[in-house]
Amino acid sequence: QVQLVESGGGLVQAGGSLKLSCTTSGRTFSHYGMGWFRQIPGKEREFVAAIDGIGRNTGYADSVKGRFTISRDNTKNTLFLQMNSLKPEDTAVYYCAASRLVKGTRLKDEYGSWGQGTQVTVSS
Q1: DSSP per-residue codes, 49-115
Q2: Are 39 and 46 in contact (CB under 8 A)?
Q3: pLDDT at 25 over 90
Q4: 72 and 51 in contact (C-beta within 8 Å)?
Q5: What does the CA dihedral 68, 38, 31, 106 come to, rounded to 10 degrees?
Q6: 22 Cβ contact list (under 8 Å, min separation 6)
Q7: pLDDT at 27 over 80
Q8: Which helix (H) or strand (E) holds 21?
């Protein structure tokens, strides 16, 4: 288990950008595949993006491909999600998560540690 803290959420107009951050105090950050998920009330938490332990391989949901970029800085134990060309349907609580599958995964059940979430609201 690792402790994760997200930041960077907020209110933005459609077409705008936000950058989310997720920090951890763990000393073995590079041993974890990391992911971003999002959830709106009444719906399942859905996969957004994932990255392997060294930041070489990434994967995205079709709905965000070409607009969002996941990255990590292992020297600062920080995960990022750059979100561009935001749409109202991107409005959700965004969660970062850590998986012992160092290659990264889209599967929510493979993530054992979660942050508290940060709200992203995109106005039309």
Answers
A1: EEE-TTS--EEE-TTTTTTEEEEEETTTTEEEEEE-S--GGG-EEEEEEEES-TT--S-GGGEEEE-
A2: yes
A3: no
A4: yes
A5: -80
A6: 4, 5, 6, 7, 34, 36, 78, 79, 80, 81, 96, 115
A7: no
A8: strand 18-24
**CA-CA distance, 12 to 61, in Å (whole number)?**
21
Instruction: Please name the residues in contact with 16: beta carbons below 8 A apart, sequence gap of 6 or more.
Output: 86, 122
Supply angle C-alpha 23, 2, 89, rounded to 5: 55
What tens digit of pLDDT does each residue of 95-109 get?
Answer: 999 999 999 999 999
Positive or negative, the CA dihedral 100, 104, 109, 111 is positive
- Who contacts 101 (Cβ-Cβ below 8 Å, separation ≥6)? 33, 110
**CB of 91 closer than 8 Å to CB of 17:** no
